[in-house]
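Risk register update: the risk of archive-format incompatibility is retired. Evidence:
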Amino acid sequence: MTALVLRSLGRVRILSASLAVVLAALQLSIIAAAASFVDGGSFERLAQVVPTFVMQVMGPALTSFRGMVLFAYVDPLIVMLLVQFAIYLATEPAGEVESNLVDLLLARPVPRHTIVSRTFLVMVIGTLLMSGAMQATTWAGLWWMAPRDVQWPAARTVLSLSAHMTLIAWCFGGAALAASGWARRRGAVVGAIGVIALAAYLVEFLQSIWTPARAIARFSPFHYYEATGILAGAGPQARNLTVLGLTALTALALAYWSYQRRDL
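Archived output:
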């Protein structure tokens, strides 16, 4: 198992390192921008010019220093980047079928469930690397660039935001891993689950302004990431984390079942 995990991680090491550097650089840039807003006293003016629907989604992240330094954790593009990265990592079994590498793997006395466990561990390690890079850069950037006498975000808030976005990535990664149990083309799974992730986010976004969307929004993993509530120190965080965790575990169980039954 260890050899399989290390081999898979080695195949994506350049991509993983590149994304981690990009996220770290982005987080440093956001902290620098937040510090400049403090020096210029611009948070009040920003709250006046930002559209109302944006304030509803990201309000606390735009009205104070401690909120703005966490902007990347609630930015849909960053969250979706982590989700798509998890989907890509989780579709490795489909890629091995497509390249016929699965024949070499299973020519050895390797149980099929080992392939699923390996891919899940790779996805977990890869996504934790991304979220860990963001957290480490957050504290390093605050120590380096935060103005004196400003309030830093609470460690619990940063950890909660990171946990929510990581679990959402695991939900869609688990779905991609389950779909890989039937698929023979990696690109097909990446595209299908990636589009589903985008649709799930759009449904969650629309439910605040379009009543019909509220009926199905609760089926979206993004519905259980109440970023504004977390930033404000409120919201049912334990319940949401539980729902996301159980969803990811259910998808993983389906992945074991589908890969065990497939015809290779």
